[in-house]
Design goal:
15 strands, Aspartate Aminotransferase, domain 2, alpha/beta, Aspartate Aminotransferase, domain 1, seven-stranded mixed beta sheet, 35% helix, four-stranded mixed beta sheet, single chain, 16% strand, binds pyridoxal-5'-phosphate
Length: 446
């Protein structure tokens, strides 16, 4: 007989959910979540530093979003948005067109997720341009359907064998430069030089390359912020060869990095942006917003896409982000949290690197700072112990050794500080050997 309700539910979860649809970091079963607080089935509250993988930028169950969704559900739930469109969805699409970077003619393709948005680029841009190939990046996460798997460059999805015409190239991971170079003397070789001199010449002719899909800041591979020259150099290369540049903003878009869209930190205007997660605060919506000419005459409608309920959630979400200046808030709170983390790095030898932008920050853990040996088990322990102490975080990274911090953008300053205190304490306890290997046996990632 299992003791707690959570334990009993966990057993049922394992008996009911397929393995590939779970990714747990601790045995938490949620009852409810509001603002930046998550409550488990035992009634215990946690400070949340994850925001549902950034979905809840405006906070969990934001009352304004809830109200908008309730109203729209009662008006027209069940309509197929592509065939029976609504004024709400038209308004939402117009808003996305006007707020995304680039003052050219655009259109919106709607889906249900970030996976859908990236897959739309994969199938539609080659058809529109008559070019078959594409370039994506090591460490990139672009979803889990066949297109996303073909384009992704992360460890947890590389078990899938998906034939494709995608060429993957190293990203600008300066802490562990794939070329063994050092910034700035490298001249950001990883951007255009390698692609133009090697990739285009040998394996991926640029005249047959339709698009390049890039995260302006990679998240799942370890919260990696490339040097400021990186995106502008990629942009130059794509322009030179007439290749569409698609920015994957699924995780970092809508204020998180301190700008409405992460790519706006770089000064680059992409030809398309892939959106998802926080665009609609938990009602499944994805969108590819692209130059009009990047969409072919073709059929690519899933029954419920462009539905008014998702659109209502999206309109309410964007209204809150703009009205409450949440991008600026993310920049301000991000500086504050970053300061705490930099200060922790001084005291905790386990921390190898601290990086990020706005309220998406990563703390990379290493066994020793010189060799930078990834401290994978220790990272899982920090996340587990923080959960025990009342803070929800996750780890990401190619070596599963980066604790990712992405609190809701509406988190209070008190909760931000309290969460940082817990993290600090958890790291200290792990460093002192206070957390056993056994507790994280099932929670070390894939
Ligand atoms: C950058 C990025 N793109 C695309 C996706 C896929 O989005 P979703 O999981 O909502 O389908 C993710 C998911 O983590 C992501 O981080």
């Amino acid at each position: 007989m299992k003791e707690s309700k959570a334990e009993r539910l966990l057993e049922r979860l394992n008996g009911a959910f397929a393995g590939p649809s779970k990714l747990l970091y601790y045995p938490l079963i949620v009852k409810e979540a509001h603002g930046s607080t998550v409550t488990d089935v035992e009634g215990r509250d946690y400070i949340d530093f994850n925001a549902g993988w950034t979905v809840a930028g405006v906070g969990f169950s934001n009352p304004e979003v809830v109200e908008a969704v309730k109203e729209q559900v009662s008006l027209s739930a069940g309509l197929a948005g592509g065939t029976f469109p609504s004024e709400t969805a038209i308004q939402f699409a117009e808003k996305l067109v006007s707020m995304t970077p680039g003052r050219f003619e655009k259109r919106v393709w709607f889906g249900h997720s970030g996976t859908d948005s990236c897959a739309a680029a994969y199938k539609l841009i080659p058809m529109a341009t008559g070019r078959e190939r594409s370039v994506t990046f090591f460490g990139g996460m672009h979803g889990v359907d066949l297109a996303g798997l073909a384009m992704g460059g992360i460890r947890s999805t590389n078990k899938y064998r998906v034939p494709s015409l995608v060429t993957k190239v190293p990203y600008a991971y300066c802490y562990r430069c794939p070329y063994g170079l050092e910034y700035p003397s490298c001249g950001v070789y990883c951007a255009s030089d390698f692609i133009e001199e090697q990739v285009f010449k040998n394996v991926c002719p640029p005249e047959d390359t339709a698009f390049m899909l890039v995260e302006p800041m990679q998240s799942d591979s370890g919260d990696i912020v490339p040097p400021r020259e990186y995106l502008p150099k990629l942009r130059k290369t794509t322009e030179k060869f007439g290749i569409a540049l698609v920015a994957d903003e699924v995780k970092i878009g809508f204020g998180r990095t301190g700008k409405m869209f992460g790519v706006e930190n770089t000064g680059v205007v992409p030809d398309a942006v892939a959106l998802g997660k926080s665009v609609s605060s938990g009602i499944p919506v994805g969108a590819l917003v692209a130059k009009k000419e990047l969409f072919p005459e073709a059929f690519a409608i899933s029954t419920l896409v462009g539905n008014a309920v998702g659109a209502a959630a999206g309109i309410a979400t964007i209204r809150i982000i703009e009205r409450d200046h949440l991008s600026e808030r993310a920049a301000k709170l991000g500086r504050r949290l970053r300061k705490r983390l930099d200060e922790m790095k001084e005291r905790h030898p386990l921390i190898g690197d601290v990086r990020g932008q706005g309220l998406i920050l990563g703390v990379e853990f290493v066994k020793d700072r010189k060799k930078k040996t990834p401290a994978r088990i220790e990272t899982a322990k920090v996340v587990y112990r923080a959960w025990q102490l009342g803070l929800l975080t996750v780890f990401v990274g190619s070596d599963a050794n980066v604790v990712e911090l992405t609190p809701p953008l509406v988190i209070s300053e008190e909760d931000l500080e309290a969460g940082a205190d817990i993290l600090d304490r958890a790291i200290g306890e792990v460093e002192r050997g206070g957390v056993s290997d056994a507790v994280v046996r099932d929670y070390t990632g894939m």
